């Protein structure tokens, strides 16, 4: 088992990752996508989305230079054609009588559309796509933050979004209550490839007024590194979704979606909501990008934990279990 879990950990091939908002991919493609340090070609046909490595097996030309013809992707160099599952179905130079060699086929992948994002699993997924029961609930309005690429590992960013001890220090200008330093006991429960936690603390309300209020935080973390966080305020319920795309070893794109009752009541709050969440995110990002490591350790001895860190220790357990399950095939 690899000691550190970073954006190129082999277990991530068997997990679901967002690769972009649906709205980013205009037309049929092929579109260029980067995931776990590799390049892929994504395209759309009548049968849905497909994704294959962005390298033709013939002379290694990028297939993103090719063209989508109905259900197949044709390479721009010598015209080989690939179906959505990677099967090479035509090599023009050998005519219809020729035999396509086994080495001409590419690996396919699973591609799904959910939460307005395109999701990919490169190999048979161990953990399911995140289930968000509140999705589509009419009580919520919704905003999407523009996707951002951080110079940090997805596991580190998830660690940060789950962390209940950093608010009074990292978020002094936005949500933190400087006097709320002690992390009180909180509930934590593991269920397969997800775990959840319930926490209560005091925080600044989200209108930038600096007013302090007690809020509840209900976390759900979905392997490998996706988080939903339900925030309960006296006059609002908010659901923040953090979905991570491990682009390469040092880079992660994060897709943040906020559902809120207040946004339903008053959709004009959208721009200020986005601006405020971006300010909160910037505080995290400025800190995280200074870390010299880009993954989280799975084995003891690299970090010091306390009881306040139970939730982020649980993340390490889930990632370690994922690494073991992937290694076991
Ligand atoms: S390199 Fe793609 S068909 Fe030759
Ligand atoms: Fe934070």
Explain how this protein is built.
- This protein has helices at residues 154-162, 167-170, 261-265, 270-288, 310-327; strands at residues 4-5, 17-21, 31-35, 38-45, 48-53, 67-69, 72-74, 81-82, 88-90, 110-114, 117-121, 141-144, 148-150, 187-191, 194-204, 212-222, 226-233, 236-248, 251-260, 296-297.
- The chain is α+β, with helices and mostly antiparallel strands and 329 residues long.
- The protein folds into 2 domains: 17-121, Rieske Iron-sulfur Protein, CATH 2.102.10.10; 141-327, Naphthalene 1,2-dioxygenase Alpha Subunit, Chain A, domain 1.
- Strands 12, 13, 14, 15, 16, 17, 18 and 19 form an 8-stranded antiparallel β-sheet that branches. A 4-stranded antiparallel β-sheet has the order 6-7-8-9, with no helix packed on it. A 3-stranded antiparallel β-sheet has the order 2-11-10, with no helix packed on it.
- The protein is elongated, with a radius of gyration of 22 Å.
- The two termini are 13 Å apart.
- FE2/S2 (inorganic) cluster (FES) is lined by residues 56, 58-59, 61, 75, 77-80.
């Amino acid at each position: 088992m690899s000691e550190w879990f970073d954006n190129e950990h082999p277990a991530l091939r068997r997990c679901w990752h967002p690769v972009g908002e649906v709205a980013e991919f205009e037309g049929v493609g092929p579109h260029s996508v980067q995931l776990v340090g590799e390049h892929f070609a994504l395209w759309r046909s009548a049968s849905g989305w497909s994704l294959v490595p962005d390298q033709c097996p013939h002379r290694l030309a990028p297939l993103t230079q090719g063209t989508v013809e109905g259900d197949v992707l044709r390479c721009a160099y010598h015209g080989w054609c690939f179906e959505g599952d990677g099967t090479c179905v035509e090599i023009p130079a050998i005519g219809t009588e020729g035999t396509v060699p086994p080495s001409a086929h590419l690996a396919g992948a699973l591609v799904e559309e959910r939460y307005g994002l395109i999701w990919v699993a490169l190999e048979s997924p161990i953990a399911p796509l995140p289930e968000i029961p509140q999705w589509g609930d009419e009580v919520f309005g919704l905003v999407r933050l523009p996707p951002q690429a951080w110079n940090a590992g997805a596991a580190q960013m998830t660690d940060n979004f789950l962390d209940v001890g950093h608010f009074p220090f990292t978020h002094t200008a936005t949500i933190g209550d400087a006097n709320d330093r002690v992390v009180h006991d909180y509930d934590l429960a593991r269920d397969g490839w997800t775990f959840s936690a319930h926490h209560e603390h005091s925080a600044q309300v989200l209108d930038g007024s600096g007013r302090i209020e007690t809020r509840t935080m209900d976390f759900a973390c979905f392997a490998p590194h996706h988080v939903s966080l339900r925030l309960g305020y006296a006059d609002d319920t908010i659901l923040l979704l953090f979905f991570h795309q491990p682009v390469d070893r040092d880079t992660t794109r994060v897709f943040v979606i906020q559902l809120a009752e207040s946004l339903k009541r008053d959709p004009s709050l959208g721009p200020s909501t986005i601006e405020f969440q971006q300010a909160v995110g910037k505080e995290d990002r400025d800190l995280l990008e200074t870390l010299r490591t880009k993954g989280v350790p799975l084995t003891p001895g690299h970090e010091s934990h306390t009881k306040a860190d139970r939730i982020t220790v649980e993340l390490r357990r889930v990632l370690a279990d994922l690494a073991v399950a992937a290694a076991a095939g």
